[in-house]
Write a structure and sequence with these properties.
homodimer; 111 residues; alpha+beta; 30% strand
Chain lengths: 111, 111
């Protein structure tokens, strides 16, 4: 089945603004733990992250992007309910001043 | 050079909430015009979009994700200043109730 159709890849994007006092080193440690969920949650297929480097001043204070990939929305539901995800969320969320999560199936457009 | 390092791919993510009264059909037309920027702006290498399908109720009202890819942050700066982007932004932004933009170099973590 083509990517972006039906059960194609679904991206899970978490935008974060860390609380003051959380160092870059600590953020890297959280990113490692986040990445390690790929090894613990079967439905999570890939992970990447990065610091916001936008220049348009439309980031609404968010400073980091965490992007994970699943094979279906059902896979995200399994991830959300997975005890290792719940443990990590309980660790990470108190460190965040702002958080936003969206999921989407990236679809290309022929033009 | 490895992706995610140095001049590796930079993702440009726009989250949108369209104003009431903008139909799904109109949103698809805007997505086509957004996608067509790949043909008009040399530094823009890829485009995909999707409707938010998240289940965690942390989307802060955003309903659509538009994801474009560049080879460098300089490429995004060229895109932002490009007249065809400016024209499209002037068309799209008034249709949005909320908008958020972040750019990041997706970096993997070895765990």
């Amino acid at each position: 089945m083509a990517e972006g159709q039906g059960q194609g890849v679904v991206k899970h994007i978490l935008l974060a603004k860390f609380k003051e006092g959380i160092s870059d080193h600590q953020i890297e440690e959280y990113a490692k733990q986040y990445a390690n969920l790929v090894n613990l949650v079967p439905s999570m297929k890939a992970f990447a992250w990065g610091k916001d480097v936008s220049i348009e001043n439309m980031n609404q204070g968010f400073t980091h992007v965490f992007e994970s990939s699943f094979e279906s929305t059902q896979g995200i539901a399994e991830y959300v309910a997975h005890p290792d995800h719940v443990d990590f969320a309980n660790l990470l969320l108190p460190k965040l001043e702002k958080v936003l999560v969206v999921d989407y199936k990236p679809t290309s457009v022929l033009v």
